[in-house]
Amino acid sequence: MVAVAAAPQVMVASPSQEHIANDVASHLDKKSVPDSLDVKVFPSIRSGSYADIGPRRFMEDEHVRIDDLSTLLGSLPKPAAFYGVFDGHGGPEAAVYMKNNVKRLFLQNLQISQTDEVEDSLRNAFLSADLDLADDSSISPSTGSTAITALLLGRLLVVANVGDCRAVLSRNGKAINMSQDHRPTYPPERKRVEDLGAFVEDGYLNGVLSVTRALGDWDMKLPHGSTSPLIAEPEVQQIVLTEEDEFLIIGCDGIWDVLSSQQAVKLVRRGLLRHDDPERCAKALVKEALRLSTYDNLTVIVVCFTSMERHRDTTQRKTKSCSISTRSLYRFNCFQ
Question: What is the pTM of this model?
Answer without folding.
Answer: 0.84
